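Go through this one:
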Amino acid sequence: MPQPLSHKKQQLYLVLSGIFIVNALLAEIIGVKIFSVEALLGLPGNLTAGVIIWPVVFITTDIINEYFGRAGVLRVSFLTVGLILYAFLVILATTKLPPAQFWLDVNSKDGQGRPFNIEFAYQSIFRQGLGIIIGSITAFIIGQVLDASVFQWFRRVAGGRYIWLRATGSTLISQLVDSFVVLFVAFYVFGNWSFDQVLSVANTNYWYKFAAAILLTPVLYLAHALIDRYLGDEATRELQQEAVADEAV
C-alpha cells in the first residue's frame, strides 16, 4: 500500500532535520580546535575543525528550503539553536563538577610520561567552547536567515530552474557573513585573538566553504534525485509548489 504524501513529507522533514541538527551541533562542539591546513595538505592557512562537516549543513539547508520553503529552514534552525544552547549549558555544568582524585591520578601523565592535568585540559577545551557558542549562535541565526531568504530570491528570479544557482549562490552570500561574524564574536570579542588573526582564519574558512559549495553541487543533485524518486513526480511538484506558495504569503 503506497504511503500518503503527508506521511512521506513528515518522514522526509524528520530525516533532513536530524541530519541538519546533529551536524550543526557537532560543528559547534569541535569548532574549538584550529588546525593547520599547511601541515595537513601543504596549503597555506588555518581552519576551525567545525568547517569540515559544515558543508553537510549547507546541503541540508538547501534541500529543506527546496521542499519546505524558508519557513521549514527557519523552524529547524531555531530548534537547533535551542538544542545547542541546551548542550552547552550541560557542558558548562560539567565544568563546575569537582574532579575525582583517582581520575586526576590515573590521568596525571601523557603517553610520553610528561605531567598532564586532565582537569585543566577539560576546562580549557569546553570553556573555550562557551565563548564560541555566543559567536556561533549569532552567526548561525544571521547566516540561516540570509541563506533561506537569498535561496528563495534566486528561486523566484530563475523561475524554479537552476538548482545549482540558488543553492550555491545562497551559500556563498550567507557564509561570507557567517565566516567573519562567528570568529569575530567568539575569538575577538570574547577571546584573545587579534583582528588580523580573525581576518586571516575567516578568509581561509570562507574559501574552504566556497570550494565545498561548488564541489558538492553533484551531491545536491543526487539528493534531489533520490528525494524526487521517494516522493514521486506528482508529490514532488506539489511539495515544491507549497514551498513557493508559502513565500508568497
